[in-house]
Structure formats: structure tokens, C-alpha cells
Write a structure and sequence with these properties.
disordered N terminus, D-Maltodextrin-Binding Protein, domain 2, Lysozyme, disordered C terminus, about 45% helix, five-stranded mixed sheet, six-stranded mixed sheet, alpha/beta
Length: about 475
């Protein structure tokens, strides 16, 4: 045998054998023979990601976790590099379902799909520092990128029939990373889902949607062509149940209900002041977290919504300070100077904690926090009126999604005239809460958690440390948290 052939076998051969072994995995057991549901998905902000507390969250996490609970199974997620890889692994029996896929003509040839639970509009994103393209014709011979393994390539191929010079590159990165690249001016345009672009606009204020690319597509779970019909039937029943009982709408609202609240100037403002103003206030927010157990970033988001972190802020109605306290609230919280940043932050945190603790124990997170924020704005009495009104309208008084509908009605005479606390600008409470939610998401992305321990003997649980999946299960199965 020639020396170089022998060397090849000795050096390269074992690597090839190892690679072949790594590619092969034993097929998973059918559902009737296992105690776990194996879900294939990708790592992205709108499917599966690790949140600031190191807990996995995302719409697909919540949905699949609840589905597994219905089946009496544990859930295990397998993270794929791309969604089209998930379809390949379904055929190789490496998962029971793939979560987070868009239904497209190409995907329909490769898999079976469950019910549509979200409509997605592919869009062309652009950097708003430059002129906005008005149609697909303006994209010819420009640098366009889209995440690999998505259905956007199909939409671009259809668009190329109108614009033969249209070219693009599929890149191996998440939509969030791609849109960050667009914000930095490294590419001309990007193609992504409307939800992904809306979320990115809250982190990169120079991102915008130029126009829709093709028609909306449905998002659904994908199954192998050989999947047992029983699993498909159970999936149909699951989505029918969560649509009827409101769970699906609550989850969609949890992740996307607030993402379009802020304007570009709002996002630019908090990003700029987080570098220039927040450093001088951060320790006060840390102390407020240790005092109340409320995440300091949520308190900072509330303070920014109230005063843009201005300790000297004063409203025409004499509401004052960085947390915009009324005289009554300041007296109740023993504040001697509402314009003192530290006193205001600590008092605002304690007041928010008091409001949260005043709510019935059955109200779970995160709805409990959003309701407390609404009460911070309009008062606890008006929040209770909104909950009473929800009952009258056959809505859920313990759901923030439903209170977003009833709070604005407190300004209408036919609704407020026979409520205990009368007229209220309830719509303002909704705006405040939804804006704080978005500011909170921004601070979660850019600011690390406070790592100091709680004072000795303090057993309070920090607010919002549970993942959305855990909070959903607590909402539906209160006994699980005991």
C-alpha cells in the first residue's frame, strides 16, 4: 500500500467514521411507548430562547409544554440549526413534531400540518437611515439577506418572476441577528416575519418594514408524513381547546400584544438614556429590588414611562418625581421629598408591591404584574371596577387580555355610571402598562439582572423570575406552584 494512502486511512479515516457515527441517532419511540414528547424547533426570540433568568421561554415552549401536560407526558426540546433541518429530522423519526414552521407550498409537500395558530406576514425590512423602497422593483441588484431554512425563499422566488435581477443570500443566523446586521448598515435589506420585525424595532429604532412580500402564511406544527393519526387528532383537540378557553390568545398577547406600542423616538430615547442617565440611578433600583423582590428592570421601565428618569418631573396635576407619585401616595409611603430620586424609587416600588399583593391570590403572573401597573396609573378602585365590568360582559376578570378591553370603557357613561368609582381614563392605564412591558423587554435585553442576594430572612420571590411556560402552567394549574 502506498504511504500516502496509508497516511490518509490512519489520519482521515477515523474522523470520517466518527462523523458518520455522530450523524446517526436512534429513532425516538412512538408516543405510546415513551413518557416524553420530543419537539424540534430553533433557537430564536419567537420560538425558544433562554431568558434573563436562565429559564427557557418562547411561544413554542409554552404551547408544547401545555400540550405535553394534556398528554400526560414530559416535554423535551431538540434545537435544530434551521427549520428545514427539523423537517428532515421528522422523516428520520428524531422528533414527534416540529414547532414554529410556516405553512408553504414547499413545506406542504414535505410534512403534514396541524391547525394554524398564528398568521405571519413576510416583509422586506429596511434601515430607516436610508430611503424606503416602495416596491420589489427597488430591490434589484441590492444586497438582500434572509434567514436560511425558512419559507421566505419561496416568496422571493415568486417575486423574481417580476424582477429577474432580484438576488439574495440565505444566511445562517437568526432573524434577530440578521435585523441587527441591517441596523448596522451592513446589508441593504432583509426579509423576515412581521412579528420578528416588530420585535426588532423595539431594540433597533432604525429598523422598519418597507412592504409586504407576498401573502400572509400560517404558522403551525409540522408532523412526519408517517405520523400516527392519533397524534394529529390530539393536536387538533388541543388547539381547539386552547382557542376556546382563551389560552392561545393569552399566549399570543404575552409575546406580541405589546410589541407595536412604542414609536421610534420612544425606543431611541430609552436606549440613549440607558447609557447617560440610568447609571446614576441603577443602585437605587437595585435597592428597590432587594426591598420588594420586584425585578429592578421592571421598576426602571415603569420609572422611564412615568418620567423618562427625570427626578425633577412635575405634571400639571402636581404628580411629581421620577416615579410620578401623588401627594396621597407619597404620604402613604412616608416620602418626605418626592423630588428625591432614591425616596421616589423606593416608594414607587413599595406601592407597586402593595397593589400587586392587594389582588386576589388566584390571579397569576404575569397578569398580576400588568394589573398592578394599571392600578399604579389609575388606582386600585378603578382596576376593580374594570374587573367587575369584565364579569358583566362575560369576560375573565383575572385576565389582563380581557381587562385591556374593559379599562377603556370606564370613560363611557353607560359603563361607569353604576360602578363604585365612576369615571376613569382607563385607556391611559392600558397605554402605560403596554409601554412598560416593552420598555421592560428592552432593559431585559441590554441590562443584566441584579445579582445581590436578598436580605437575611427575606423569603420573597422576585417578581417575573418564572418563565412564561411556568407562569402559564401556574395560571391554569394553580396546584402546580404549591
Amino acid at each position: 500500500m502506498r504511504p500516502f494512502i496509508l497516511l490518509f486511512i490512519m489520519v482521515i479515516g477515523p474522523s470520517l467514521m466518527l462523523a458518520a457515527c455522530e450523524r446517526y441517532e436512534e429513532p425516538i419511540s412512538p408516543l405510546g411507548e415513551t413518557d416524553e414528547l420530543v419537539v424540534l424547533t430553533v433557537n430564536s426570540p419567537d420560538t425558544y430562547y433562554e431568558n434573563a433568568e436562565g429559564i427557557y421561554a418562547g411561544l413554542e415552549v409554552d404551547l408544547a409544554t401545555e400540550f405535553a401536560r394534556d398528554l400526560g407526558l414530559k416535554v423535551r426540546f431538540k434545537i435544530m440549526p434551521k427549520l428545514d433541518k427539523a423537517l428532515l429530522d421528522l422523516d428520520r423519526q428524531q422528533g414527534h413534531l416540529a414547532a414554529g414552521l410556516n405553512i408553504s407550498p414547499k413545506n406542504l409537500l414535505r410534512a403534514r400540518f396541524g391547525p394554524v395558530y398564528q398568521l405571519i406576514q413576510p416583509q422586506v425590512a429596511y434601515n430607516t437611515d436610508y430611503p424606503r423602497p416602495r416596491s420589489i422593483h427597488h430591490l434589484a441588484r441590492r444586497k438582500i439577506e434572509t434567514p436560511g431554512g425558512t419559507s421566505h425563499t419561496e416568496a422571493l422566488n415568486r417575486a423574481r418572476q417580476q424582477v429577474p435581477d432580484l438576488e439574495w443570500t440565505e444566511v445562517d443566523m437568526t432573524a434577530e441577528d440578521l435585523l441587527a446586521k441591517l441596523a448596522e448598515g451592513k446589508i441593504d435589506y432583509a426579509v423576515a416575519d412581521s412579528t420578528q420585525i416588530n420585535m426588532a424595532k423595539n431594540f433597533y429604532p432604525n429598523i422598519g418594514a418597507a412592504f409586504d412580500l407576498g401573502q400572509p402564511t400560517g404558522k403551525a406544527w409540522a408532523f412526519s408524513q408517517y405520523t400516527d393519526r392519533t397524534l394529529l387528532d390530539k393536536t387538533q383537540q388541543f388547539f381547539k381547546r386552547i382557542e376556546q378557553d382563551g389560552t392561545l390568545m393569552r399566549l399570543l398577547d404575552r409575546y406580541y400584544g405589546h410589541v407595536e406600542r412604542l414609536e421610534r423616538a420612544d425606543v431611541s430615547g430609552i436606549l440613549q438614556k440607558r447609557r447617560t442617565v440610568l447609571p446614576d440611578l441603577r443602585n437605587h433600583f437595585y435597592d428597590a429590588e432587594e426591598l420588594t423582590g420586584i425585578d429592578w428592570r421592571l421598576l426602571a421601565a415603569l420609572a422611564y414611562q412615568e418620567s423618562h428618569w427625570n427626578p425633577m418631573a412635575i405634571s400639571p396635576s402636581n404628580v411629581r418625581g421620577i416615579m410620578m407619585l401623588t401627594e396621597t401616595t407619597a404620604d402613604r409611603m412616608k416620602v418626605t421629598d418626592r423630588l428625591d430620586a432614591r425616596q421616589s424609587i423606593l416608594a414607587g416600588a413599595r406601592y407597586l408591591e402593595l397593589l400587586k399583593n392587594s389582588l386576589p391570590p388566584r390571579i397569576r403572573e404575569p397578569d398580576r404584574t400588568w394589573m398592578a401597573l394599571a392600578a399604579y396609573n389609575q388606582g386600585y378602585g378603578h382596576l376593580e371596577d374594570a374587573r367587575i365590568l369584565a364579569q358583566r360582559l362575560n369576560l375573565n376578570p383575572d385576565s389582563w387580555l380581557d381587562l385591556k378591553k374593559t379599562l377603556p370603557l370606564l370613560s363611557r357613561r353607560k359603563h361607569f355610571q353604576d360602578l363604585k368609582h365612576g369615571y376613569a381614563r382607563g385607556g391611559e392605564a392600558v397605554i402605560l402598562t403596554e409601554s412598560v412591558r416593552t420598555y421592560y423587554e428592552i432593559l431585559l435585553k441590554y441590562e443584566p439582572p441584579h445579582t445581590w442576594g436578598f436580605p437575611a430572612g427575606d423569603t420573597a420571590t422576585p417578581l417575573m423570575t418564572l418563565s412564561p411556560a411556568a407562569t402559564l402552567l401556574n395560571l391554569i394549574y394553580p396546584e402546580a406552584s404549591r
